[in-house]
Specification:
- One of its GO terms (cellular component) is cytoplasm.
- Its EC number is 6.1.1.19.
- Residues 4-92 form the Arginyl tRNA synthetase N-terminal domain.
- There is one protein chain.
- This protein is mainly alpha-helical.
- The chain has three domains: 3-94, Gyrase A, domain 2 (2-Layer Sandwich), CATH 3.30.1360; 134-225, no CATH class; 257-369, Isoleucyl-tRNA Synthetase, Domain 1, CATH 1.10.730.10.
- It contains twelve helices and six strands.
- It has helices at residues 3-19, 48-56, 60-72, 96-111, 143-158, 173-179, 219-223, 227-235, 257-278, 294-312, 316-330, 347-369, and strands at 44-46, 77-83, 87-92, 134-139, 162-167, 207-209.
- Strands 1-3-2 form a three-stranded antiparallel β-sheet, covered by helices on one side. Strands 5-4-6 form a three-stranded parallel β-sheet, with helices on one face.
- Strand 2 (77-83) and strand 3 form a beta hairpin.
- Helix 1 crosses helix 3 (60-72) and helix 2 (48-56) packs across helix 3 (60-72).
- The model is unreliable at 119-132 and 182-203 (pLDDT under 50).
């Protein structure tokens, strides 16, 4: 059972409690599940009971006990323990957690950099539920606004939307040359250059204004960082935050989030090359994945939701921060991927290599949606 499948199982328990009259709440769209925190136990934990307590008009512990009884009645659940103010700690049946991780890695490796594409998203101002939307993005002639609109167009198209991007004024040639944007006007059919392509959207699409806080320095200072670091500097902060533009985006050390993301991806590619030289390749297998990889599995399973919500909320910064989380989660796994000394490649090494490659695939796909290269060598 993958985290996504477990999330649906938790929502099924909520729905049963609502249908049985034990809870009077609206069933949420999703239930967040993650590895248990300090004081927790089992395979996964969720705070859904704390989230529902106020609208249900009941104490969190009472809501947790109601949901616990319904969870225990569902397939794949071995035990549920309530801890703290109302956290549900879920233990899966033997083989469920392992089988879910295998399917997750297989899904990522099968879909490649398009893992997470095509998931329909919901937002308050548009209809969804399986219907691709037409979105018209309008931005001022500001470098950050153009870059954010470009990344947002990529995200929206990854989720099946038709996108048109228009600008309030001409775009300087040097912006287009370095940051892959074109000179556009309000009445142009096409907007920013998009490596993912996609149909232009007619004038009837409701306009969405893209107006993040501008960079506090001249555009020339952003251009001096180069395309990758410059785009990251503009996209990583939330739109309402003022971006920091400086040499810290170019340093090759852990303090630089962009470096950590690209370094993690390059390490996964290096492991692939080294494993090939040793005569083995990736092969998903759950029983050989170490405990240190559990946070990584959760972040990979969450990737489709991150893409969908980043598109729905017009917030490419959510994807940027998610990539940092994936990078930080995969780095502890990497030293255990290759055999040491005279050790022969085993099923454990093949499984760890598959998981590392899945993480590298997600990093590469996410960077591509941000318009940033994912080099194989750093």
């Amino acid at each position: 059972m993958t985290p996504v499948e477990l999330s649906r199982t938790v929502l099924r328990a909520v729905r049963r409690a609502v249908d049985g009259g034990e809870l009077c709440v609206s069933v949420p769209e999703r239930a967040v599940v993650a590895p248990p925190g300090p004081g927790g136990c089992g395979d996964y934990a969720t705070a859904i009971a704390l989230r529902l307590a106020r609208p249900a008009g009941q104490p969190p512990l009472r809501v947790a006990e109601v949901l616990r009884s319904h969870l225990l009645a569902l397939d794949g659940i071995r035990d549920v323990v309530v801890t703290g103010p109302g956290f549900l700690n879920i233990s899966l049946e033997d083989g469920q957690a392992e089988g879910g991780s295998v399917r997750l890695v297989e899904d990522v490796l099968r879909d490649g950099v398009r893992y997470g594409y095509g998931y329909r998203f919901a937002s308050s101002d548009t209809a969804c539920h399986g219907t691709a939307q037409d979105v018209r993005l309008r931005c001022p002639a500001d470098l950050r606004a153009l870059v954010v609109a470009d990344a947002l167009a990529r995200l929206l198209r990854s989720q099946g939307a038709g996108v048109r991007v228009v600008c309030a004024g001409p775009v300087p040639r040097e912006w287009g040359e370095l940051f892959a944007v074109r000179d556009v006007g309000l009445d142009e059919v096409d907007g920013l250059a998009d490596s993912e392509g996609g149909e232009a959207v007619g004038a009837g699409a409701a306009p969405v204004l893209v107006r993040p806080v501008p960079a506090p320095v001249p555009a020339a200072d952003v251009l001096a960082l180069g395309r990758d670091a410059g785009r990251w500097a503009l996209l990583h902060p939330a739109g309402h935050d003022r971006p920091r533009i400086g040499a810290e985006h170019l340093v090759q050390r852990e303090s630089n989030p962009l470096f950590r993301v690209r370094y993690a991806h390059a390490r996964t590619r290096a492991l692939h090359r080294n494993a090939a030289a040793l005569g083995f390749g990736p092969e998903p297998g759950a029983t050989h994945v170490p405990a240190v990889a559990r946070p990584l599995l959760a972040t990979l399973a969450d990737h489709p939701r991150v893409l969908a919500r980043a598109a729905a909320h017009r917030a490419p910064d959510r994807l940027a921060r998610h990539l940092v989380t994936v990078a930080d989660a995969v780095l502890p796994l990497l030293p255990a991927v290759l055999p040491l000394g005279e050790e022969k490649p085993s099923a454990a090494h093949r499984a760890r290599l598959a998981l590392a490659e899945a993480a590298g695939t997600v990093l590469a796909g996410g960077l591509s949606l941000l318009g940033i290269d994912a080099p194989d060598h750093l």
